[in-house]
Amino acid sequence: MTASLRERVGSDESGLTLIELVIYMTLAVVVGTIVVSMFIGTLKGQDQVTSTTQATTKGQLAATTIERAMRNATAFAIADGGKTLTVLTTLDKPCQQFTLQRNAAASTGSRDVYDLFLYQGAKLPVGTWPTASTGALTSGVVLVDADHHTSIPFVLDGKSLDYTLWFATDVKASAPDSPNVDFRGTITPRGTGGVIASCS
Question: What is the pTM of this model?
Fold first, then answer.
């Protein structure tokens, strides 16, 4: 009896058969693929939220700065096909000019991307403002999007200013179809709002 028990125990092969091993490996690959796909989707979603937040922050900065200058304007002018806004204000830096300059590195054949520059200074002709007062206020302003819609940033409406600024959520040339965050507004200066030819 002991011999037959030893024989049965010795012949009992514990472990997995080849079919069981293939099934377990297949299940592991399927579960692993699902987990990796979910992880990649989460990362992409996070990138999209981050880029939209950055575009929104840029837009808020630009809109707030433009509105502050215009609310305190005694006179203003629009030039360069609506790409330049010059404002004479009652602020400590009375001469403020907002101008859009094309960013060739971020622009593509289907989308034009600009940087918004703010020039501030005393009441001097624009060409003589010190370069120290020049700086990029923000970047990623889209004037022509991938669908060939065109935006004119600054438009005179009587004594008011209408502005439209589209900010790209992704300014990389590899992402020309990225959505834009839209900022629009109409501002009427508190002062007389006379139109000036230059900030001098």
Answer: 0.69
